[in-house]
Design brief:
There is one protein chain. The chain is α+β, with helices and mostly antiparallel strands. 16% of the residues lie in helices and 30% in strands. The chain has 2 domains: 115 residues, Jelly Rolls (Sandwich), CATH 2.60.120; 225 residues, Sandwich (Jelly Rolls), CATH 2.60.120.10. The strands form 6 sheets. The chain has a 6-stranded antiparallel sheet, with no helix packed on it. It has a 5-stranded antiparallel sheet with strand order 14-15-22-17-20, with no helix packed on it.
Length: 353
């Protein structure tokens, strides 16, 4: 391709309002209305995933997303994509901010990168994972806010997006009709909890909201994107009578689980959103957006950050970086819009003020 041809294409993209904007015109708008010029525009941020071995994990992240996993023989159940916790921390893996932790960005450059209105959060309040379930997860519950503190945990609400699943794979969510708390306690004592839990067979592209207090377990054969409140409190009530990675049974949290479970949550179904908003609460909002090849991809509010999870297709940044299926990208405020290089579907995660 000649230089003249490249320049003509650049100018054509400018006229169409898409990607390539001359450096002198790239800017972000600060809270006081002043424009800050960026020599190369505001580029997306990506982070190094944190891979977690799990007794129920597999290697689908390698097969489906083409990733290189840390140990060629280990089974990984979770990849923590965006996280700001004391022991687990996302670190930027590319560009001038490479090596900077998410917590450092949130603590020292919050308004510049994320926008205004988030002052009450000491840590970045959203946690995003990919879950690879090659066996059933434990039947578990996350504590609601009303009891979390007295139980010594953190409240946790989350949602699941089914990126892929085997035919007939089932999620275990809520209780079967007619099961009482007394019935459930009897099942715990006799190792038959699974018989009390409602099962659903979703399809790829389905989603479901898991509010704090909802009994749940991911079954065998799922690849799931999990968007959640920044919490890591899980109470296991039943673990299929199996050993953990160390050969010993994993701890159960029966008293905490019984205090947390919503026993009125009977036989829920997968969500059927009427619009592109798949899930919304006080802690996060997740929308599914589709773009035709060549379209610009950006959040509705350029003054706020957003996180993109690429479900299908390919995106390209103004700086030429490409993000394919399985990539997670944080768009700082004022990011120059990305461009879809093919028909592309993303999950767009934002934080309510």
């Amino acid at each position: 391709m000649t230089r003249d041809t490249t320049e003509n294409k650049r100018q054509a993209w400018n006229r169409q309002g898409n990607m390539r904007v001359p450096a002198a015109r790239r800017f972000s708008v600060l809270a006081n209305g002043v424009r800050r010029i960026h020599a190369a525009g505001v580029e997306p941020l990506t982070f190094k995933p944190l891979y977690m071995e799990r007794v129920w994990g597999g290697r689908e992240l390698e097969r489906v997303y083409g990733r290189t996993l840390p140990d060629p023989k280990a089974f990984y159940g979770e990849s923590w994509e965006i996280v700001d916790r004391e022991r687990e921390q996302s670190v930027v893996d590319h560009g001038p901010l490479a090596g900077t932790s998410l917590h450092e960005l949130w603590s020292t450059r919050r308004e510049e990168i994320f926008g205004t209105g988030y002052g009450e959060h000491a840590r970045f309040p959203i946690l995003i994972k990919v879950l690879d379930a090659r066996a059933d997860l434990s039947i578990q519950v996350h504590p609601p806010a009303r009891v979390a503190a007295e139980l010594g945990g953190e409240p946790k609400t989350e949602m699941w997006f089914i990126a892929d699943c085997e035919p007939g794979a089932k999620l275990h969510v809520g209780l079967k009709r007619g099961v009482t708390k007394t019935d459930f306690e009897h099942a715990i004592a006799h190792g038959t909890v699974a018989a009390c839990v409602h099962a659903i067979a979703p399809r790829p592209g389905d989603s479901i909201f898991i509010t704090a207090g909802r009994l749940h377990a991911i079954g065998t054969g799922f690849l799931i994107h999990e968007i959640q409140q920044n919490s890591d409190t899980t109470y296991r009530v039943f673990d299929w009578n199996r050993p953990g990675l160390d050969g010993k049974p994993r701890d159960l949290h029966v008293a905490q689980s019984l205090a947390s479970i919503d026993f009125n949550d009977i036989e829920p179904a997968m969500d059927r959103p009427a619009c592109d908003i798949l899930g919304a609460c006080a802690h996060f909002q997740t929308a599914r957006k589709s773009f035709a090849m060549g379209e610009a991809v950006a959040p509705a509010d350029a003054g706020k950050f957003a996180i993109l999870s690429v479900v299908q297709g390919v995106l390209e940044s103004a700086g030429g970086r490409r993000f394919g299926k399985g990539c997670f990208v944080l768009l700082p405020r004022g990011t120059v819009p990305l461009r879809a290089l093919a028909d592309t579907t993303v999950l767009l995660v934002t934080l309510p003020e």
